[in-house]
Design a protein that fits this description.
two-stranded antiparallel sheet, mainly alpha, about 170 residues, about 10% strand, three-stranded antiparallel sheet, about 50% helix, 8 helices
C-alpha cells in the first residue's frame, strides 16, 4: 500500500472529475444488474490499496455533520456539557439544519500523525466516510460525485467502476 500523494491526487481529480461525474450520472439513470454486488467487490480492492492515515484529506478539507447523539457522546468523552461542546467547536448551519465544525482542518485531527484524537467516539459521519457501500450505490451517487474531489478511496472506486462496469 503506497502513501497517498495529495498533490498528485488533486491533479488527477482536476483532469478526470468531469468524466467521473458524467459516468456516475449515467450509471444512476441506468444501473446494470447486480451493480451493488460488483461495488462490494471493488470496495474490498480499494481498501487494500488505500492508506487513509497517509492522507486525512477528508479531515483537512471537509466537516462532518454532528448528530445529537454524536454531540452527547463526544462531550461526555471530553468532560464537557453538550452546550460547551457546541459553543467551543461547532456552528449551526441554518440552511441545511446541521451542526458542523467551525474550522478546518478538524480540531480533532492530529496533523502530525493524521490520526483522530477522538477516534473511539468520532461522529457517525466520520465513521462511515466515504460511504462507498453505505447504501445501494445508485441511492448515493450524489455523495460519490462530491467525494471524488476529496477522497482518494472514492476516486479509486469510481476509476475501478469505469474500467469494469459499463
Amino acid at each position: 500500500m503506497l502513501p497517498i500523494n495529495i498533490r498528485s491526487f488533486k491533479q488527477k481529480v482536476r483532469h478526470h472529475q468531469k468524466a467521473f461525474k458524467k459516468y456516475l450520472s449515467k450509471l444512476e439513470k441506468n444501473p446494470p444488474k447486480g451493480l451493488h454486488k460488483k461495488i462490494e467487490l471493488i470496495d474490498a480492492e480499494v481498501w487494500k490499496e488505500t492508506d487513509c492515515l497517509s492522507c486525512a484529506n477528508c479531515c483537512k478539507t471537509m466537516t462532518p455533520t454532528f448528530t445529537t447523539k454524536d454531540m452527547k457522546r463526544i462531550a461526555d468523552y471530553l468532560n464537557m456539557t453538550v452546550q460547551e461542546f457546541k459553543d467551543t467547536w461547532l456552528y449551526y448551519d441554518k440552511k441545511d439544519k446541521d451542526w458542523m465544525n467551525k474550522k478546518q482542518p478538524c480540531q480533532f485531527l492530529n496533523t502530525k500523525t493524521n490520526m483522530c484524537n477522538i477516534y473511539a467516539v468520532r461522529p457517525a459521519d466520520c465513521a462511515g466516510f466515504p460511504h462507498l457501500t453505505k447504501k445501494k450505490v445508485v441511492d448515493y451517487i450524489h455523495v460519490h460525485q462530491q467525494n471524488i474531489a476529496y477522497c482518494p478511496a472514492t476516486y479509486k472506486m469510481v476509476e475501478k467502476m469505469m474500467s469494469s462496469i459499463q
